[in-house]
Design a protein that fits this description.
This protein is mostly helical and 218 residues long. It has one domain: Substrate Binding Domain Of Dnak, Chain:A, Domain 2 (Up-down Bundle). The chain is built from 4 helices and no strands. It holds the Pfam family Vps5. One of its GO terms (cellular component) is endosome membrane.
Length: 218
């Protein structure tokens, strides 16, 4: 079971790292777009302030305001990428539960090796022509301590194995629901942002037509 899961996690981690990297690039692109639109908004506003034609100045003010709103929405979109997808993929990448099991296993086996070494040392002392009772008592106490450490490490290893297996089984059952929730929330927010951008764009178009028709800029 654990060998199979280790292979699955290795493959999954490679794909998630690619996804995580792509999402970070997406967030960076949205932030760059938001910053560019904010810069455009400021530039258009400066142009509007020096424009002598009243109608054109009014249109430029509307354009600057609209670009500012769109910049805010794209910044919100970048935040949506981060909150709903980047953090989700980062959380999955953090599922390195098997490494803790490996660490505990190594601790257990190290304790067993120390116990074997100490037992061999005791046997050699028992076979020696002269037996130092004081040293023998010390080694006996050390053996008891090492035996307790081995038992504790083995118990800890068995417990974490059971818990990890249960955790994997629960995750296998629920991972589709987790992914569905993350992507649904993300897409709903993305749709709301896009609808707001569409509404702002249509409002700008209507304002432009009204200003141009009334002032006959063209």
């Amino acid at each position: 079971f654990f060998y199979q899961k280790a292979d699955e996690l290795d493959s999954w981690e490679k794909q998630l790292k690619r996804l995580h990297s792509s999402l970070l690039n997406l967030v960076s692109g949205d932030n760059d777009l938001a910053n560019a639109e904010a810069g455009l908004s400021r530039s258009v506003l400066l142009l509007a302030n020096v424009e002598e034609n009243t109608g054109l100045a009014q249109a430029l003010h509307h354009l600057a305001e609209t670009e500012g709103h769109v910049a805010d929405l794209h910044a919100l979109q970048a935040e949506a990428h981060t909150c709903h997808l980047v953090e989700y993929s980062r959380e999955l990448l953090g599922m390195d539960v098997l490494s803790e099991r490996v660490r505990i296993y190594r601790t257990w086996k190290t304790a067993e090796a120390n116990l074997r070494s100490k037992r061999e040392q005791k046997i050699r002392m028992e076979m020696a022509p002269r037996n130092d009772n004081k040293k023998m008592a010390t080694i006996t106490m050390e053996l008891e301590d090492l035996e307790n450490r081995v038992d504790q490490a083995q118990h800890k290893f068995n417990n974490i194995s059971i818990n990890i297996k249960r955790e994997f089984q629960n995750f296998d059952l629920n991972r589709f629901a987790y992914f569905k929730q993350a992507t649904t929330e993300y897409l709903e927010l993305l749709l709301q942002i896009q609808l707001k951008i569409d509404f702002i764009s249509l409002s700008l178009y209507a304002d432009f037509m009204h200003i141009f028709n009334n002032n006959m800029v063209f």
